[in-house]
Amino acid sequence: MRISAILLIVSVSICTEGMAAFEPVFESPWLQGGVASALFPRTPLVLTANPACMGLLEGHGIAVSAARPHGLRRLDRTAVAGCYMFSRYVLGAAILLSGDESYSEATAEAATAWKLMNGVVLGAGISIRRLQISGYGSTSGGSADISTVWTPVEGVYGTALFKSVLRTDLGSSGDPSAPRSLELAVGVVPVENVVCAAGAGRQEELDIEYTFHTAFSPSPMVSIATGIKTSPTRFWAALEFSLSSLSMEYGYGEHSSLPGTHAVALCWGNCASNPSSLHLPESGNEEEPLEIQFPIDINTATEEELQQIPGIGPSKASSIASWLRQNGPVSSVTDLQEVPGIGPSILEVLNEYLVVE
What CA–CA distance (Å, rounded) separates 156 from 131? Predict the structure, then answer.
C-alpha cells in the first residue's frame, strides 16, 4: 500500500479532524512563525527550521523541547538539539520523536552553517526519517536542505531556504520522504530589543503560506514573541525567561479550526542571537567616517572607534563599553567573551582589531 494512503488512514483514526496530523508543528516555541521566526533564533533547535540560521547564534548550546499538537496526546512531540561553534562554521545535530505505539516518527538531523564572509552565511542539513505504523510496518527515507542568510545593511536580515532539494523515497513506497518547499523571509531590528520579520513559503501541491513574527525584550531576562500564519489563519505567542546560561520557553499556537498547541523548551548556553539594530545616518547631518589606525587599545577605545570594527554596530559597541565601565580594564581581549552577545565568531574579529597595551 502506498505510504500516502497509510498516512490518510492513520490521520482519520487518531483524531476527529484528520488535518491535525498534517499540520506542521515546529520544534521550539520560538519557531512557530516558521522561516520568519528563524531569522532571530534563541536555541540550537533552529537547525530543524533553517540550518543557515545557526550561524546567527552567539555560542554553543543544547536545547530540549516538548509539544502537544492540537491537544492530541497521540501526536506528542519531543526534540533535543545541540550546536558547537567554531571560528567560521557551526555544527549542529538534533533528534526528533513523535507519536505513540500505533503511529510514530523518528528523525535524526545534522546541519552546518558556514560564515562565508561578513554578512553572509550558507547552511546545509540532512535528515533521516523512520516512520512506523502498527499493522503496516516501518519505512525510512532521507532528505537534504540548503539555505542562506545575509545582512545587506546593519539591522536588516534576509534568508532563503530550499527544503528537500535532495530526497529519497520512503522505502519502496515510491512516495518522497519529505515535501519540497521554497521559503523566503526578511527581518529588521528597528530599535534595540525589538525585531520584526515577514516570510512566505510554497510547498509543492499547496498554496503559498505567509508568516509574520515580532518579538520584544523588555529586560535581559524576559523576551516576548507573537505572530500569525496564513492560510488558514493561525495565531501564536511565546514567552522566554532567562537566568544566566539557562532559558525557559513556553509557546501557544491557536488554529482557526483545531484545538490549540502547547509547547515548552529549555536551553542551556549563551547561544541566543543578538542582532544589531538598524542604524541610519541623520539626513543632512552625515559625518566623515573616523580614520582609525588599527589595532587599538581596548581599554581606551571609544564607542565610536569600536563601531568601525566590522560586525560591531552601535548596539554591540555600547554593550562592550558599558561592560568595561562596570568591570574595569581587561588584561586580554579574550576577556570580552564575558560581554553579553559576544560569541566566538565576534571575538575572533575583535582579536584582529584590538590589543591590550
Answer: 39
- Cα angle value 167/173/178 (rounded, 5°): 30
What's the longest Cα–Cα distance across the chain?
73
- State the pTM of this model: 0.77
Q: Are strands 103-117 and 77-85 parallel, antiparallel or unpaired?
A: unpaired
250 and 312 co-located in one domain: no
Supply the pLDDT for residue 339: 82
Cβ-based neighbour number of residue 191 at 10 Å: 11
Evaluate whether residue 280 is within a structural domain.
no
Give the domain extent around 134.
3-268
With respect to residue 278, please indicate whether it lies within any of the assigned structural domains. Answer: no
For residue 228, give the CATH number of its domain: 2.40.160.60
What's the pLDDT band for 12 if we cut at 50, 70, 90? Answer: very low
Instruction: Please enumerate in sequence order all residues whose Cβ is within 8 A of that of 140, keeping only pairs 6 or more positions apart, or say none.
Output: 128, 129, 130, 131, 170, 171, 177
Residues 134, 159: contact at Cβ < 8 Å? Answer: no
Residues 35 and 89 in one domain: yes
Does 155 share its domain with 194? yes
182: part of which helix (H) or strand (E)? strand 181-191
pLDDT digit string (tens) for 139-152?
999 999 999 999 99
